[in-house]
């Protein structure tokens, strides 16, 4: 087993690096890494149902999708990510969260902190979650990875993961909300996230008897850059991979309720209706023509709204009102 040092805090780079290492590195690997602020969806989740899109857009926080399942998480400088890639011969027992979590739990036990399982895959302290974990299988290799909240901005986490009040009907995996805790509250002898990472890394090197440490090679970095460009930075992956869904949201326009209904397939709006006595058939049709067959994600909607123009009458809904309805 080798330790691969990941010095980048770019979330697009780091998610792509996990996939490249899983599929291209022969040795079993361990990685510790930190992202700049980002929201990371599970592979089978609906991006529009899990995230407060107006808030993350206002704060320039990207929304990405990873290759593993599970729920949505918030990353920042106070959250540590652990990735372990192993080769498994018994293909019926590839995913093992107990084995993956063992070094985390043992390290914290050494530090005087007792932990327990929070649900099937997560870890907690006294009933409060500090670690969420997921996995992805590729041939005879499996990637287990998870978060460790040490000094994360929990207020930002809560705001980012508080979805817009739309009614969304789908078959996507739903995140399970939990009472969370930063480990810094229980580890007063560790003064910073950097110190936690340093001590945990030393523990992992000993735990797995790791003799080799390296950074990603030039060739691996080329593969990572390509994967970022072609997959992890694209709306088609981050939003379009969402399952088909219906989306219903209401708002008040000049004291009258307007209800928007969308049908979305493969991330594309295939049908749109506005219900209101105040909207003329002409405006309704204009909005339908503008948005049907475009992707249902904030960037595409904002671009289309630039073509909508300013309302000429009070019954022509404003661009800001439409944007808030659509996301």
Can you summarize this structure?
The protein is α+β, with helices and mostly antiparallel strands and 327 residues long.
Brief descriptors of the model:
4-stranded antiparallel β-sheet, 27% strand, 33% helix, Enolase-like, domain 1, 2 domains, 6-stranded mixed β-sheet, alpha+beta, BirA Bifunctional Protein, domain 2, 16 strands, 327 residues, single chain, elongated
How is the biggest beta sheet arranged? 6 strands, mixed
Q: How many structural domains in the coordinates? A: 2
CATH homology superfamily name of the largest domain? Bira Bifunctional Protein, Domain 2
Order of helices and strands: EHEEHHEEEHEEEEEHEHEHHEEEHHH
Total strands: the figure is: 16
Query: According to CATH, what is the topology of the largest domain?
Result: BirA Bifunctional Protein, domain 2
Q: What overall geometry do the principal axes of the alpha carbons give?
A: elongated
* Structural class estimated from helices and strands: alpha+beta
Uncertain parts: none
- Report the span from N to C terminus: 45 Å
Oligomer: single chain
The whole-number mean of residue pLDDT values reads 92
Helical amount = 25-40%
Radius of gyration: 22 Å
CATH architecture of the largest domain: 2-Layer Sandwich
**Under the CATH scheme, which class of the largest domain?**
Alpha Beta
